[in-house]
Design a protein that fits this description.
By secondary structure, the protein is mostly helical. It has 9 helices and no strands. The chain has one domain: Up-down Bundle (AhpD-like), CATH 1.20.1290.
């Protein structure tokens, strides 16, 4: 399956999702390089765990990303899921000792990334947003701003993962059993 096949599977009621998907994957979207856009999107597709979307997107991403990006996208997905889960609990704890705790789990693989650190952090931001981890998202947004990444690009990351989430939802809805709509008669 390809990205074109995914676009063709999006029904007319979700035509805005189709348009938005094409927009966020366009060259230089939100001032992001094509490599960054596809790395962020690939990471999001892994996190969304929607097989059709991932397979279609992975084929497209091979045109723009070298092999290390694929394993790094998987690494980012699992590391942010781990950190988001931990942060979600600790940040909501009324116990100050728990709420101020650091994760203190191994993050050694992050020291030897084979991709640009800023691109990794942009993907991590997108994954934090998908995982609804406000602390993680704020952490990465702040790091990116300190690296000189513009608010336009940070919002671009948000748009990419939001559109891919909507795309996964649409594709999932199309697999559900549907029933024909018929108007109620006067006697019903």
């Amino acid at each position: 399956m390809s990205l074109d096949n995914i676009l063709r599977r999006i029904p007319s009621y979700a035509s805005d999702v189709s348009k938005n998907l094409q927009t966020v994957l366009a060259p230089n979207f939100a001032g992001l390089s094509t490599t960054s856009v596809y790395f962020i999107a690939l990471s999001a597709c892994y996190a969304l765990k929607h097989e059709q979307l991932l397979n279609g997107f992975r084929n497209e991403a091979k045109m723009y990303l070298d092999e290390p990006y694929f394993d790094t996208a998987k690494l980012a997905t699992v590391m942010i899921a781990q950190n988001a889960n931990f942060s979600s609990f600790t940040s909501q704890s009324p116990d100050e000792n728990i709420s101020k705790s650091s994760i203190e789990l191994s993050l050694d693989t992050l020291e030897n990334l084979e991709v640009d650190r800023t691109e990794f952090e942009m993907a991590a931001l997108g994954l934090a947003i998908l995982n609804r981890c406000t602390n993680c998202a704020n952490f990465y947004a702040t790091k990116l701003q300190k690296r000189g990444i513009t608010n336009e690009s940070i919002l671009g990351v948000t748009k990419i993962v939001s559109v891919l989430k909507a795309t996964a939802e649409v594709l999932e809805i199309t697999t559900l059993r549907t029933y024909e709509f018929s108007a109620r008669g006067e006697n019903l």
